[in-house]
Amino acid sequence: MITLKKQHRGYEKYRDSDVEWLGKIPEKWELVKFKGKFSVSNERVEDHPSVDQILSVSGYRGVEKKDVSSNEGQMPSEDVNQYRVVRPGQLVVNTMWLNYTGLGVSKFTGYVSPAYRAYDIDDSMEPNFVHYLLRSFPYVQKYSSLLYGIRPNSLQVKPMDFERIEILVPSKKDQKKIASYLDEKCALIDDIIEGKKRQIDMFHEQRASVIENAVSGARHQDWQRIPIKFLVQRMDYGISENLKGDGEIKVLTMGNVQDGAVIIPENGCIDTVETNLLLRKNDLLFNRTNSFDLVGKVGLYEEESDIKVTFASYLVRMRTNEKAEPHFLNYVLNSESFLSHVRSLALRSLHQANLNPTRYGQLHIRIPRVQEQRHISANLNQQFQEINNRFRIIESSISLLNEYKTSLISHVVTGKISVS
After folding, report:
1. Domain covering 224-367 assigned CATH 3.40.50.1000 in the classification
2. CA 418 to CA 26: how far, in whole Å?
3. 224 pairs with which residues across the strands?
4. What percent of the chain has pLDDT over 70?
5. Of all helices (H) and strands (E), which one includes residue 251?
6. Which residue among 222, 302, 365, 380 has its CA within the 20 to 30 Å range from the CA of 266?
7. Entry pTM
8. pLDDT value at position 244?
9. Spatial separation of the C-alpha atoms in residues 298 and 227, rounded to whole Å
10. If residue 85 lies in a helix (H) or strand (E), which one and from where to where?
11. Residue 361: which residues within 8 A CB-CB, separation 6 or more?
């Protein structure tokens, strides 16, 4: 976390909080247990049938409305009678997601899962200050230290442990000043970040346009029209090559196929698994099941060393034969025109789209001779060097801005710097 020092000043006097993870706090600030300022709200939907908006807790934004334009997130009324009612100004907590900032003060009336907890906030506390305080970095670190459970995906914080956490309480006047200050500063930082994200979107559009112009078979009628299955040695999914693990099998998910590349996670090694195979340089991974905007995406593995991997059957490994240059095929399969065609053939369900690998392999694409494929790929790779460098610089600046925002919030709500 970025340390803020020179451009900010602190409070006149501090005292020891006697809480190691909070350190020194402003002399006039109170320190109380959570239960001293918050009380559980037990309103249920069965007692308030007019409440029909389902809410969720986002680690990024806090409490937000779920999209109910379709059936997603919307259940029949008889299924939600025991769901908790949430009112504006109440704190909503997901104890199974606290280490990912799974809490926030609601601005909406709605209902949440019975697994969540809703709390009324004492009048001495400014709700917006509470929102910033309990989502700040020191508090999230504290929640993480309280996690219990056996399996990594089922860890949670016991409500009794959460309710023993120490709460910083400045005067109501100071709370309002802090919340107002952070609203202004965070809005400014968010605007800058959004501007940079728009630049990234422009780079993606530019990249897509360049690829489309270079590999579109429609513009090259002399290129040969060939089914995908005749360009690959094999298409593998859900099979085993009986590799010995030795703690080196990497677990890949759909998230590891990004921007035309296969990203190997640093962690996630396992010893043995029934389904595994070898990923070699220039192998392609095809994403056959995902949300509609991601299904059909292809990634190229470009590392020099072979790697043992495992993945569910929603990923398909493709290894090219002598008729296809891997980079060129990767560009073609990720081109906007081809992806649009592929997605028109996908079977859609409520939450995702599915592509049959056999049918995918039967799709035709137009390609030139291998020598020209290599020439086109080399030109595209060269063009994208500058675009990718600029892309990385912007992504790095976004990361720094988010880190600065996190640090600013933490320093302000814990009294390390004053906003007076």
Report:
1. no
2. 9
3. 367
4. 88
5. strand 249-251
6. 380
7. 0.73
8. 58
9. 16
10. strand 84-86
11. 227, 228, 229, 232, 235
